[in-house]
Design goal:
Layout lengths: L2 H22 L3 H22 L21 H19 L1 H4 L12 H43 L10 H6 L8 H5 L1 H19 L2 H31 L6 H18 L1 H5 L3 H35 L4
Helix pairs in contact: 1-2, 1-3, 5-8, 5-9, 5-12, 9-10, 10-12
Length: 303
């Protein structure tokens, strides 16, 4: 029987003593006996847990020589009876240990955070790969435009080969022949760019980045809440600090998106830098979180 249960039982006994004193013990002698027992019980309760939410100690205490018919005695007994009944039927008042979180305090709920965050690390790396593919698609387009500027003019022909074949006799075609490797490179880059564009990397990166920010923030909050539910306090350290910093970097990267959509290169650089630093913090979380994971497995039970 824990301390709170003992307190409830003693308060119930105390209420019966108080009610019995008023209803069936009008004599001074009987009241003295019950009054002494009541005060002794009260002292015992106080010594168990020092728990006095209703401020019983401040109530006037009747002397053992006072009559049961005295007003102070009646008031004291009535107040104690009411308090004990309320405390007995109100577990939320008597139970100072906090609510029972059920499965959330067990191993199942405790392992939810590390499993999800490990999955989000892989998801984060894949989202970064999609950004790389989208960046490559943009860079290929710029490279193609730059190569085309150095190509010789071939008005009326679809390719350099056609221009060379259709050149009049005596025409110098050496410049056209020298540009053939460049034309081949442009064709290869154009095919690569077309393939990347068909993959929809830009849209995938945007949607997965938004999902990563949501799930990552949600489970970055879930982890400390689970710790508090199990232990009643948090444990500040590298793992907690890295998680807080990671959420800030996700928010900074997301804040750059509107400017990036307008072609702001500075915002794009900040976005990429914040995500790269975030991956580094994610790796730090894995290293600093392993000892915590082992301790959780040691201290918790299924489910």
């Amino acid at each position: 029987m824990n301390k709170m249960t003992k307190l409830n039982v003693m308060l119930a006994i105390l209420s019966l003593e108080a009610i019995g004193t008023q209803a069936f013990s009008p004599s001074v002698r009987n009241f003295s006996t019950h009054g002494t027992a009541l005060l002794a019980t009260k002292k015992e309760i106080h010594s168990i847990n020092k728990f006095d939410p209703f401020d019983i100690d401040s109530l006037p205490k009747p002397s053992i020589t006072e009559s049961a018919e005295d007003g102070h005695g009646k008031s004291f007994n009535a107040k104690v009876a009411a308090i004990s009944i309320v405390a007995t039927v109100s577990p939320s008042v008597a139970n100072a240990a906090g609510p029972d979180w059920g499965i959330f305090e067990g191993r199942t709920g405790s392992l939810l955070h590390p499993v999800m965050m490990a999955g989000l690390l892989v998801f984060s790396l894949y989202t970064g790969f999609l950004e790389f593919q989208w960046s490559r698609q943009r860079e290929i387009g710029e490279e193609i435009n730059s190569l085309k500027k150095g190509m010789p003019k071939i008005s009326g022909f679809s390719s350099l080969s056609d221009a060379i074949s259709g050149a009049e006799e005596g025409t110098d075609v050496s410049a056209l022949k020298a540009a053939l490797p460049v034309e081949k490179l442009i064709a290869e880059l154009t095919a690569d760019r077309k393939e990347l564009a068909s993959q929809g990397n830009r849209d995938k990166h945007f949607s997965q980045g938004a999902l990563l920010a949501f799930l990552g923030t949600a489970f970055a909050i879930e982890g400390p809440l689970n710790t508090y539910a199990r232990a009643g306090k948090l444990f500040p350290g590298p793992h907690l600090y890295a998680g807080a910093g990671l959420v800030v970097l996700w928010a900074a990267a997301a804040a750059c998106v509107p400017a990036m959509q307008k072609g702001n290169d500075t915002a794009r650089s900040i976005h990429i830098g914040a995500n790269a630093l975030g991956v580094g913090l994610f790796g730090w979380q894995v290293v600093s979180g392993l000892p915590i994971l082992f301790k959780v497995i040691e201290k918790t039970k299924w489910p």
